[in-house]
Amino acid sequence: MSTTTTTAAEAELAVQARQAVARSEGYWAGVWKRLRRDPLTIACAAILLLMLLAIVFAPLLAPHDPYQGSMIRRLKAIGTPNYPLGTDELGRDILTRLLYGGRLSWFIGILPVVFAFAIGSTLGILAGFMGGRVNMAIMRTTDIFYAFPSVLLAVAISGALGAGIFNAILALTLVFIPQIIRVAESVTQGVRSLDFVDAARASGASGFTIVRVHVLGNVLGPIFVYATSLISVCMILASGLSFLGLGTKPPEPEWGLMLNTLRTAIYVQPWVAVLPGVCIFVTSICFNLLADGLRQAMDVKG
Amino acid sequence: MLLYLLRRVVYAVPIALAVGFVCFMLVQIAPGDPINAIVPPDAPADVVAQVRKDYGLDKPLPVQFGLWISKVAVGDLGRSLATGRPVWSDLRSAIGNTLTLAFAASAIGFTLGCVLGGLAGTFRGSAIDRGAVGLAVAGVSVPHYWLGMVLVVVFSVQLNWLPAMGAGPGGSSDWGWDWEHVKHLVLPAVTLSVIPMGIVTRTVRGIVAEIMNQEFVTALRGKGLTRWGVFRHVVKNAAPNALAVMGLQLGYLMGGSILVETVFSWPGTGLLLNSAIFQRDLPVLQGTILVLAMFFVALNLCVDLVQTSLDPRIKRA
């Protein structure tokens, strides 16, 4: 009698579970559904996509040569025929240089976060999952880097190494690794204590398998969202390093460096001089809002 | 509690040593022989050899670190390559100016952040909330060195109300709180204040909103407490966390003012760093970074201690 009631109850539960699975369209479909209802995030993604297309196809879109200047058309105002956004202190077309400059600015604004994401999440997951001495060693080392304000650390490393794109990327990667490690470690620790990890361990799965099958899928999302929000910071810092003369070197077009060289022109063509900063601002705020939107759509806390 | 405080203080010692080690390594990772950080590149070979011996640069790295840190501990940061003066003498007045700028910027940023964040947290979903959140996002996403340029264009170039650069009469060492000096402080301080404004607004909004949702606030209202009375309770609950965030922000401002100081030629540590980078003046670079980082370590410690002693809910063993 009692066995039949349990099996009946179990059968009922199984039916309910199957219905629940049929009703939900899966995690990513839900994320996409929530994103579609968020016009601000969609708008930011659209602006970023347009900017990406513009800088990828810069050679087709740019009306002039980014390096070719002329002394007779220096510092023209916005709206000059043939030079819609004016010219810089060496007579080069601003629109052209903004299009080409975006390539480097995006490159050094995103690449350090990508590297830091790869290295930082590996170390963070390792620290969070292994615990004990491994955790101690990794987390105490990040504490040291946390003792420097991030701008100062970036300036210190690239200042010591000297100017150059490679050094700037290296410095920024080192700045972001500890920040990603901290997030990765804390989410991994949260997942590690959940029941399904214990169940996997009890059924004899190795540590590597548990991480690959059960942990990665649950922690990469939150780390990814955090990394997206770092792109905004990295854009500002990377262009800031170039602004200080530490990133790209002239005559290479890059937004931060353009802002620096145009600084002397603010008494002649003030509104031309601030244009590269508008590009940095728009990119940075769009990445910031995109990260916020993703965080809400993916239901990541914090 | 006392044990926790003591442990926290003791833990700051290895951190400070490690920070010193990172600063020491800065000169090691710099391209070229570290000897170039002490003697000019055109020095004769026998002088170079003598200096190498005097400075212990022929000894193994750990020994060199020991020698360096024992000098730093008594305040000897070496000499500037560019000026030949002790690093500390230039650094002292620069730190004062950076502190002035950082305090002014935090006064503006924290006040705005607390007011905006408090209002946004109290009236969630309202127009005030959306405006505050928008300002906060703009504040953390704006390249502040660019904002500085825009402010110069508007208030110095177009309107001619405020000076665009420098720290007023007397140059770097003669600061006073009269209008002749303060008018030089306005633009850099406002520029630097947007980041803490954004972050403090976000944080305070989150904290206040969380507290307002708790049952004790409803209970306080229910027992007939005035708005002002409820407000006092909310502030008391929000204060420890909000103060911790603000303390760290002050540290970030000290370290992060390099870009703003460059825009406004503000004679602080940032401008010093900037010229050190351009002249490859490694002792000045190293000394400035070390002092700023140590300041940040000390500030971190203070924030932690204050937060622990302010918040009776934190009972760490």
From TrEMBL, chain A:
Coiled coil: none
Keywords assigned: Cell membrane, Membrane, Transmembrane, Transmembrane helix, Transport
Gene3D superfamilies noted in UniProt: MetI-like
Residue intervals of the ABC transmembrane type-1 domain: 102-291
The family this protein is said to belong to: Belongs to the binding-protein-dependent transport system permease family.
Transmembrane portions of the chain: 40-62, 106-132, 144-177, 223-246, 267-291
Membrane topology, from the record: Multi-pass membrane protein
Keyword Nucleus attributed: no
Listed name of the protein: ABC transporter permease
Record localization: Cell membrane
Presence of the UniProt keyword Isomerase in the record: no
Biological processes per GO annotation: transmembrane transport
Record's GO cellular component terms: plasma membrane
Superkingdom field: Bacteria
Pfam families, A to Z: BPD_transp_1 (PF00528), OppC_N (PF12911)
From TrEMBL, chain B:
Topology relative to the membrane: Multi-pass membrane protein
Keywords (A to Z) from UniProt: Cell membrane, Membrane, Transmembrane, Transmembrane helix, Transport
Protein name in the entry: ABC transporter permease
Annotated ranges, domain ABC transmembrane type-1: 95-307
Subcellular location: Cell membrane
Any one GO molecular function term: dipeptide transmembrane transporter activity
Stored InterPro entries: BPD_transp_1_N (IPR045621), MetI-like (IPR000515), MetI-like_sf (IPR035906)
Species the sequence originates in: Roseicella frigidaeris
Pfam families listed in its UniProt record: BPD_transp_1, BPD_transp_1_N
Main location: membrane
Transmembrane segments: 9-30, 99-120, 132-155, 185-204, 242-264, 284-306
Family to which this protein belongs: Belongs to the binding-protein-dependent transport system permease family.
Gene Ontology CC terms: plasma membrane
